[in-house]
Amino acid sequence: MPHPTPKPSHSETVDPIWLLKAIGITILVALLCAWLTLSLLFYRGQWQLVLHPTRTTSAPANIAGTHFEVIHFGLDESATPQLAGWWIPAPANARYAQSTILFLPGADGSLANSIPTLANLHNLGINVFAFDYRGYGQSASIHPSQLNMTHDADSALQYLTTSRAIPAQRIIPYGTGVGASLAIKLAADHSTISALILDAPRGDLLEVARRDPRSHLIPVRLLFHEHFPIAAPLTTLKTPKLLLSRNSSPDESFLRASSPKLIVELHTLSETLYAQSLTRFLDQYLPPAPVQRLVPSPTPTH
Question: Is 298 domain-assigned?
């Protein structure tokens, strides 16, 4: 019986052009995934480019010899205070004992770094309430952000107007660094605030993020949301403003700010000029202190 003739086997060959295309597409997909991952990491962690908090475990014993009260406020859903602040009262007969400065610190360190400024403000004879944003000092341990810090500033103002029953027109937001942006926001949202003070503001932080070498490969302008705006809102804010410049020339945002405003250059460390500038401003724009009227006792009847 004849055997069938075996058919010749043909090995399949892979087109090298197709193989190169597949490798190229794989590399492109991997690069796209890496770029998207990098963009997501930047979006979630961009606060670290412009905010540099430090944690503290305890408050100082005093502020330049002045005793103060540690306040815990800003309750969350479980009624747990999220914010820690310092209430530094003025003497009862002090010049501005009926008014309060709401101190909004900058983005670096914690409230402990602002003790010299708080002491100078207290020496004016005015109540001072200062606090750490969440993520700073003794406040709740979460990542800070513009959104969270704006909410914290609102909570501080609410604490003063409700728990301490201080009229909003007697509360002066004092913002330094990025706190200046938060002070502007408070004044814009609460027309009853009679004045605010901006000290060496630092805001409009997009350019700061763009200069960071870690952000050169991603669309920073589209992803960045920690702006802390200052220049634009100042052009329309009609609240009286004391603008303290620590540079040799005023900040451009100061020059474009709407009136009324008072610009003071403090490029030299002069506590006298600092105190005189604040006193002049407060005397001009704080509402007069309420006059306490003595009610005569009724004449006794015999």
Answer: no
Q: Does 301 fall in a domain?
A: no
Query: What DSSP assignment string belongs to the chain?
Result: -PPPPPPPP------HHHHHHHHHHHHHHHHHHHHHHHHHHHHHHTHHHH-EE-B-SS--S-BTTB--EEEEEEE-TTS-EEEEEEEEPPPTTSTEEEEEEEEE--SEE-GGGGHHHHHHHHTTTEEEEEEEPTTSBTS--S---HHHHHHHHHHHHHIIIIIS---GGGEEEEEEETHHHHHHHHHHH-TT---EEEEEE---THHHHHHSGGGTTS-HHHH-------HHHHTT--S-EEEEE-SSS--HHHHHPPSSEEEEE--S--HHHHHHHHHHHHHHHSPPPPPPPPPPPPPPP-
How many structural domains does the chain have? Answer: 1
In this structure, is residue 26 part of a structural domain?
A: no
Query: What does the pLDDT look like over 219-274, one tens digit per residue?
Result: 777 777 788 999 999 999 999 999 999 887 778 899 999 999 999 998 777 888 99
CATH code, 146 = 3.40.50.1820
Up-side HSE of residue 156: CA atoms within 13 Å toward CB? 34
Write down the pTM of the prediction.
0.84
Phi-psi region of 177 (alpha: psi -120 to 50; beta: other; left: phi over 0): left
Parent domain of 169:
49-285
Q: pLDDT tens, 39-66?
A: 666 667 677 888 999 998 788 888 878 8
Specify if 90 maps to a domain: yes
